[in-house]
Design brief:
By secondary structure, the protein is of the alpha+beta class. 38% of the residues lie in helices and 20% in strands. The chain has 22 helices and 22 strands. Strand 18 and strand 19 form a beta hairpin. It is elongated. Bound molecules: adenosine-5'-diphosphate. The site of adenosine-5'-diphosphate has 16 residues, from helix 2 and helix 3.
């Protein structure tokens, strides 16, 4: 007997979780093991294609062998098999990616934190270890293709495992599960019945492209058996090899045959998500490109979605055979959240990655998928608003980036998918809805940007625009203002920031009045401007303020908020908005300024600085020199 080895710490923890699992879907171990077997055969088949080994796809099969007396279930494949080293590395150490990421993912996710099992199982397809949910002992007998020696891996759980040489005639892997003892709540014998196994294969592994076979026993009543014959003699018993799965990939089936549950199961298994998808898109297209596509919109953004690590892409199949796992050319960045696959007869099996990039057919498919996804989202927006808002919460940011990054190229495609919170009812509205609710004579879409709705609402200008009866869109994400500026307009209605200097909402009379006041106070404004130096591009009086003494507006295309966003990015180049300090001539402070202008220029400079800093703070901007601010404030207070 070989020496027992310990599992790596990570694996041990996961294993413990599996052994003590209260997960209600323990049955998924079968799909995990079958999926591994299928992968192992894929690997060997590919090897055969590349190295001309001459293996026939038709020779591959998976076999389930339940043994009720021994209480074991054996799953056999004739795939690529494993060497001793591979047994050690693959089964002794859990896929590193999985466990580490799992910990980060779960942080902050209450549901998952309280439910270790589910998130691990669903998220990372812990695969092989799931066997320990139902088995107290597992053996893996495996012979790598082309090797002379076979090895037996044995484990009874967290204690560790052994690997020793063993007998095995042909290549492939044979996994035997020694079922746990039944308990009051769990009946593990169930997994040894033909009936249950057949159902589970149908449910989880029907589309597997290799036959999953099992010897099933049929019992027919004997017609001529005497009434009083012993029970076992009343039946004719014969066994028969049955293929349990249809082998038809889910996406090749007719939509009418499929239930939501089928799609959801498929998605969860294939894309390791423990939550069901928000929606699925199943389409078959013939014409310039012939393909079937099965796509899913996840409910939540994966933890790495908004990072560089995230890789977009769809699986690419050529007539049912996987040729690429993540074909990024099939998805535009703005729909990078979509998971799924495309199967096309038009693509050659041996096409290389480089060739694929230039493949005309692939480009046509990608364009068609883009439209399909857009239409599906639009449909959801129209018919299932709540669901769409859930989608928007998870992926809206990406759509907005899409408009911005595409330099407006994707505007037509994406603009009707946008949602912004509106000042009316604080609900999310589309641009179409905003425009439909515009006041008579209103020709701009008004927006205000800031860190949060509350902060925006507290802005002096926002108050006055709302008072005039205009609806305002709150732009609270960093990308928002960049996005609407990139669009410039929606159906010929221009986007207009209420924080811009040239907000033209006054009556002719009001305009005339403030113009005169500005002329009268030109010297004062110039003096304040001089005191502030290049912090501001202009200083002027305004009649848009009611209770506040001052505010900041932006004169150019770059707003103060955008300046803040740009400067928070790690570049040397600092952006600078053309800020204007606007003063309320009806506020008592104005008289004070006037007085200081005539009597105390030095104090006027201090006041100017304090007022500017105040206005910046109200806008949610950081102040350059808090120490100076505090000193000036003290100076004024001590006076
Ligand atoms: P995953 O399948 O997600 O990689 P698993 O824990 O299910 O994780 O399996 C770990 C590894 O063990 C697989 O990646 C594969 O290399 C190997 N393996 C598992 N089952 C088999 C099998 N039946 N035949 C060959 N290799 C296998």
């Amino acid at each position: 007997m070989s020496r027992k080895k310990a599992f790596k710490a990570e694996s041990k923890r996961l294993l413990e979780m599996m052994i003590n699992s209260i997960y209600t879907h323990k049955e998924i171990f079968i799909r995990e093991l079958i999926s591994n077997a299928s992968d192992a055969m894929d690997k060997l088949y590919f090897k055969s294609l590349n190295e001309n080994l001459g293996l026939d796809r038709g020779d591959f099969q998976i076999r389930l062998t339940p043994d009720k007396d021994a209480r074991t279930l054996t799953i056999t494949d004739n795939g690529i098999g494993m060497t001793a080293e591979e047994l050690e590395n693959n089964l002794g150490v859990i896929a590193q990616s999985g466990s580490l990421k799992f910990k980060e993912e779960v942080k902050g996710d209450e549901k998952a934190e309280n439910n270790d099992d589910i998130s691990v199982i669903g998220q990372f397809g812990v695969g092989f270890y799931s066997a320990f949910m139902v088995a107290s002992k597992v053996t893996v007998r495996s012979k790598a293709y082309g090797a002379d020696t076979a090895y037996l891996w044995t484990s009874e759980g967290v204690d560790g495992y052994t690997i020793e040489e063993c007998e095995k005639d042909s290549h492939g892997t044979e996994i035997t599960l020694y079922m746990k003892e039944n308990t009051d709540d769990e009946d593990y014998d169930e997994f040894l019945t033909d009936y249950k196994l057949r159902n589970l294969v149908k449910k989880y592994s029907d589309y597997i492209r290799y036959p999953i076979k099992m010897e099933v026993t049929h019992r027919h009543p004997k017609e001529d058996a005497p009434e009083d014959a012993p029970e076992e003699e009343k039946y004719e018993v014969h066994t028969e090899d049955e293929t349990l799965n249809s082998m038809i990939p889910l996406w090749k089936k007719n939509k009418s045959e499929l239930k939501d549950e089928d799609y959801n199961n498929f998605y969860q298994e294939k894309f390791y998500d423990y939550t069901e998808p928000l929606a699925h898109i199943h389409s078959k297209t013939e014409g310039t490109a012939t393909y079937s596509a099965l796509m899913f919109i996840p409910k939540k953004a994966p933890y790495d979605y908004y990072s560089k690590e995230y890789e977009k892409g769809l699986q690419l199949y050529s007539n049912g055979v996987l040729i690429m796992d993540k074909c990024s050319d099939l998805l535009p960045d703005h729909f990078s959240f979509v998971k799924g696959l495309v199967d096309s007869e038009d693509l050659s099996l041996n096409i290389s990655r480089e060739m694929l990039q230039h493949d005309r057919q692939l480009k046509i498919i990608a364009r068609s998928l883009e439209r399909t996804i857009k239409n599906e989202l639009k449909k959801m927006l129209t018919n299932e608003r709540e669901k769409y808002e859930e989608f928007w919460k998870a992926f809206g940011l990406q759509i907005k980036f899409g408009i911005y990054n595409g330099y407006g190229m994707n505007k037509e495609l994406l603009q009707d998918l946008l949602l912004f919170t509106s000042s009316k009812d604080k609900k999310q509205v589309t641009l179409e809805e905003y425009v439909a609710g515009m006041k008579e004579g209103q020709d701009c879409i008004y927006y205000a940007s800031g860190d949060s709705i509350e902060r925006i609402d507290a802005l002096p200008v926002v108050e006055s625009v709302k008072d005039k009866g205009y609806e305002i869109l709150y732009l609270t994400d960093n990308v928002d203002e960049f996005c609407v500026q990139m669009m410039t307009d929606y159906n010929e209605k221009k986007f207009k920031s209420v924080q811009a200097g040239d907000l033209d909402l006054q009556t002719e009379e009001e305009k005339k009045e403030i113009k005169e006041k500005n002329e009268d106070s030109k010297e004062l404004c110039d003096a304040i401007k001089e005191a502030l130096g290049d912090k501001v591009a202009a200083v002027r009086l305004t009649n848009t303020l009611k209770t506040h003494p001052v505010c900041i507006t932006s004169d150019g295309a770059l707003s103060a908020q955008m300046e803040k966003v740009l400067n928070s990015m790690p570049t040397d180049h600092k952006a600078k908005a053309d800020k204007a300090l606007e003063i309320n001539p009806n506020h008592p402070i104005f008289d004070k300024l006037q007085y200081l202008f005539d009597n105390d220029k030095e104090m006027l400079a201090t006041y100017a600085d304090l007022l500017f800093t105040q206005a910046m703070l109200i806008e949610g901007m950081a102040i350059d020199d808090p120490v100076k601010f505090s000193e000036e404030l003290s100076k004024v207070m001590a006076k």
